[in-house]
Amino acid sequence: MTVGILGGGQLGRMLALAGYPLGLRFVIVDPSAEACAGRVAPLLNQDYLDPSRVTDTLRSLDVVTYEFENVNSDSPWLCGDVPVYPPTAALRVMQDRLAEKTLFSELGIDTPDYFAVDSLTDLHDAIARTGFPAVLKTRRFGYDGKGQYVLSSSSDVADGGGLSTGRPLILESFVRFDRELSIIAVRSARGETAFYPLIENLHRDGILRRSVAPVPSAPSSLQANAEAIAARILERLSYVGVLAIEFFQLGEKLLANEMAPRVHNSGHWTIEGAETSQFENHLRAILGLPLGSTAARGLAGMVNLIGDIPRHEDILAIRGAHLHAYDKSPKPGRKVGHVTLVCEDRDELMSRISQVEGLLV
User: Fold this and answer.
1) CB neighbour class for 319 (10 Å; exposed up to 12, middle 13-18, buried from 19)
2) Strand order in 63-66's β-sheet?
3) Which of 164, 167, 206, 284 has the fewest beta carbons closer than 10 A?
4) pTM of the entire predicted model
């Protein structure tokens, strides 16, 4: 069976690597000839909207998926006769922060307060209701902290928070959370669902730096609540594939922040830390195969390598460290790899995570 993947970044790369033991084949579609997934699978170097070579290639595919949500949902790759998962209807919802928040509200899922902003008048009206601080975001094309601006005072509002009000925006109340969590859920084409343990995440400058799972010191009700939220969304969207949902935790309450219709950075720990990785389960789901166990193999941690990778020998000298290098050129703010660690003792896990983080510049 052959899977087409739109997007040639590290997520597409790890999907292909997870699929080879299953006997799967892959075609990567990406406009960049340097796409790192193209080093582990055949790369079709073209724009997603270019139909010139779509027809023949599409005929050879059994299913199409994507590794990032900013692909155009009107791409000919997503509008042919080959099944596309996750479904494009779900993709369109998650491409727009307002549509996403509206879906949460329709399903009775708690969120930060939010308001559509299409003009400076809208912005002033919204800030009068949220107060300061508040977070102004573009409704589309934001990731890793891009397209977001914290409004701390009226002087920040004067210029639209540094974001052009010529495009749709959303204003959200600022949440003083206890911690940031996420859940990785998966639903197969056969309707089977599974959920990974809740994950605790640490962000800095809008970029995920570290994940730990299962989340420490969490009441069982928190996991049950997160799974119930995910199940409602999976069902409403007739979803197929892996879905990531990010939350703010306030005591025993979860506020839904945002979703990603794909495998997710906070789920990288599952490669070594779960019985079935998020990448393998995504492929099982979109191909209608039975889902694998999502049980954790112990306590797991993941550290992102941002900008550059320390010496391989220094990372691998740390007990239990697994290095995943993406074969991407170093660049400030770029995710170029990650390290996973799995052990049975929480203190030991955090010690090893600290050793990895001590190698980072």
Assistant:
1) exposed
2) 43-45, 25-30, 2-6, 63-66
3) 164
4) 0.95
